[in-house]
Write a structure and sequence with these properties.
3-stranded mixed β-sheet, single chain, 181 residues
Length: 181
């Protein structure tokens, strides 16, 4: 967690959770287990309300995350991935996204602390995942969720976008607001 300040700026809190490597490992394993070709077989998957309802209820983790540990150990990974729980790739992918979304929500909570946060800016590779963004939207309905359309920004870039939008007009940084459906 970091707080970014500059003369005349309002404070901006930033939470960075780098789980892209873990996501790549997990989706490669998913593709192998379910016989999908290529490591990008998750890209055409869109959010499915029925799968959300089915897989969001169990709180215990089903995936063993190999490269991450949650700082306060409030969210743990499974000792081993429970592949037998999933009938197909799409259901396993939705559950993986639910578990990763829970990690993100925890990181946001750590960053926010007691501060009242009203807006969340989402950037990085997960900003391109329909499933992840819809899960985040459902889990955090009280926040205004603004998602980068290009996954190349940073905490500093977001701070600049909030504070001095005219200063970044020359940079290709587009956003979209995600509303509850």
């Amino acid at each position: 967690m970091s707080q970014l300040y500059a003369p005349g700026w309002r404070p901006v809190k930033a939470s960075r959770l780098f789980f892209g490597n873990e996501f790549n490992r997990q989706t490669s394993q998913l593709a192998e287990v379910f016989g999908k070709k290529g490591c990008h077989s998750h890209q055409p998957i869109t959010s499915d309300e029925e799968l959300y309802r089915k897989w969001s209820v169990p709180m215990e983790p089903f995936f063993h995350l190999e490269t991450m540990q949650y700082p306060d150990k409030s969210i743990l990974s499974a000792p081993t991935t429970q592949w037998d729980k999933f009938p197909n790739f799409e259901e396993a992918f939705h559950r993986l996204m639910i578990e990763m979304m829970r990690w993100q929500v925890g990181a946001i909570g750590l960053a926010a602390g007691n501060t009242q946060v009203r807006k969340l800016f989402v950037d990085g590779g997960f900003s391109q995942s329909d499933v992840f963004i819809h899960l985040l939207r459902r889990e955090l309905p009280e926040y205004e969720l603004i998602v980068s359309t290009s996954p190349l920004g940073s905490s500093l870039g977001v701070a600049m976008a909030i504070q001095e939008p005219e200063r970044i007009e020359k940079y290709p940084f587009e956003t979209r607001r995600v509303l509850m459906s």
